[in-house]
Amino acid sequence: MPQYDYDLFVIGGGSGGVRAARVSAARGKRVAIAEEYRFGGTCVIRGCVPKKLFVYASQFAEHFQDAAGYGWTVPQASFDWPTLIRNKDKEIARLESAYRSGVERAGGATIHSRARLIDRHTVLIENENRRVSADQIVIATGGRANPHAALPGHEHCILSNEAFHLEALPKSIAIAGGGYIAVEFANIFHGLGVETTLVYRGREILSRFDADLRRGVHEAMEAKGIRIICHEVFERVEKLSDGGLAAYLCNGEALAVDQVMLALGRMPNTENLGLEAAGVELGKLGEVLVDDYSRTSVDNIWALGDVTNRVQLTPVAIHEAMCFVETAFGSNPTKPDFETIPTAVFSQPEIGTVGLAEEDAARRYDELEIYRASFRPMRHTLAGRDEKMMMKLVVDAASRVVVGAHILGPDAGEMAQLLGIAVKARLTKDDFDRTMALHPTAAEELVTMYRPTYRVKAGEKLAAA
Ligand SMILES: Cc1cc2nc3c(=O)[nH]c(=O)nc-3n(C[C@H](O)[C@H](O)[C@H](O)COP(=O)(O)OP(=O)(O)OC[C@H]3O[C@@H](n4cnc5c(N)ncnc54)[C@H](O)[C@@H]3O)c2cc1C
């Protein structure tokens, strides 16, 4: 067997790459990982973490309003964007250093450079113009926001990366897209006092989520004052002489705004990586093609996380990395399991969901029982807030297994994480019914919906028997 500089070389220091490097190093493998920008990757530097911090920041306006009903007098509140950015950056720098030092403490080498393949066992570290060899190589280079280069004036628009570093908070923004990133940023900007318009080409925002969630969050966002325009796209964006922007829709309407953000999907980072030279096959969207074990068409090169365009979520990239380590170094071939992934949209109100949407379940099962409750959560009562919370269980009528659980409202993401265990374990509605309620909580509704709201048979909605 040839002698290589490393047992494993990882290209990309994001969620998946860092986990693969750290755990392999902790197993005694000789590991190096190259990151061209900042360790932690999209999630830590310009994704999940700063996004969630922005969500928290944007929720205070409503908290201050709600406080009055509970007897508090809150003086006129004001918001300072530079303070938020500064504090967010400090926290991100702390996490970045923890990601890097985690690999180093496990015995791995961290390299601050872009890297690319020369052949199936050789990597070029570009900053140092140095070549190293490795027995196994992992491609974990993630993805980037689609810049929508075909849109005239796209150069005047920002993507999610820039949204984390704007010098000043705009007074108004138009956001293109209907996926979770577009919806979350619409709520963030609105909550911080920005006049916000969301423009989505489809019939309803958040495709692939349960229809009740999609409708519910759409209505709630509009009730808060976010303008949502569906069935529309930007035709062009122009810079105005006063420094503002005009975003023209195909219907002829022009939105005069300070900022336009494009949130139109993400693309895998596979350009100029030397993948073709090494013989690694790519798919139509430029994603690295992998088998069930994350192995590429070259048997010592693996790919995981967003670059494979399977499921673009941090815990999935981490899970794929853990499976890779088991397969490559643990003599225990392990396939990542993509069934029943709990997920959240940090919109306001929040979405938490796991398992099948009603529409998907109706295609898979002959008959469903749908349990649905819509109510005003207790915390909104004294606050005088009308916003409703929605909970929904989708049950296969034949087996009684709960195949989908969907929540819209405060802390929905936290609930979906725990419901994920029940749905993954294929617990039945009877198990839910047997579970004692925890009172007073919103979540108790999940175990107290005794009668189906309606049934769905062969795709047809029927009254509950
Ligand atoms: C705005 C936003 C919000 C999100 N919110 C959530 C959320 O709430 N929950 C969730 O689960 N997921 C969320 N995601 C998705 C999540 O961030 C990704 O799924 C996750 O980061 C993927 O991890 P990864 O390791 O595949 O890639 P990444 O984390 O993208 O890491 C790839 C790394 O590779 C580096 N790199 C690329 N090319 C090279 C090269 N040639 N040499 C060296 N380094 C290179 C990049 O700089 C990057 O650091 C969000 C994403 C965005 C953009």
What is the residue-averaged pLDDT? Answer: 97
Tell me the distance between the termini: 69 Å
**Main sheet attributes: strand count, strand direction, barrel closure:** 7 strands, mixed
Strands, total number: 23
Q: Write down the oligomeric state.
A: single chain
Q: Into which percentage range does the β-strand content fall?
A: 15-25%
Indicate the overall shape: globular
Q: How large, in whole angstroms, is the Cα Rg?
A: 24 Å
Q: Assign a percent range to the helix content.
A: 25-40%
> Low-confidence runs (pLDDT<50, min 5 residues)?
none
Q: Provide the list of bound ligands, each named once.
A: flavin-adenine dinucleotide
Protein model, in words:
- With 465 residues, the protein is an alpha/beta fold.
- It has helices at 15-26, 41-46, 48-67, 81-105, 160-163, 180-191, 211-224, 275-278, 314-329, 358-364, 378-383, 412-424, 429-434; strands spanning 6-11, 31-35, 109-112, 115-119, 122-125, 130-139, 143-145, 172-176, 195-199, 227-229, 234-239, 245-249, 254-257, 259-262, 266-268, 301-303, 343-345, 351-355, 367-375, 389-396, 402-408, 454-457, 460-463.
- Strands 1, 2, 3, 4, 5, 6 and 16 form a 7-stranded mixed beta sheet that branches. It has a 7-stranded antiparallel beta sheet with strand order 17-18-21-20-19-22-23, with helices on both faces. Strands 10-9-8-14 form a 4-stranded parallel beta sheet.
- The longest helix has 25 residues, at 81-105.
- It is globular and about 70 Å long.
- The relative contact order is 0.12.
- Bound molecules: flavin-adenine dinucleotide (FAD).
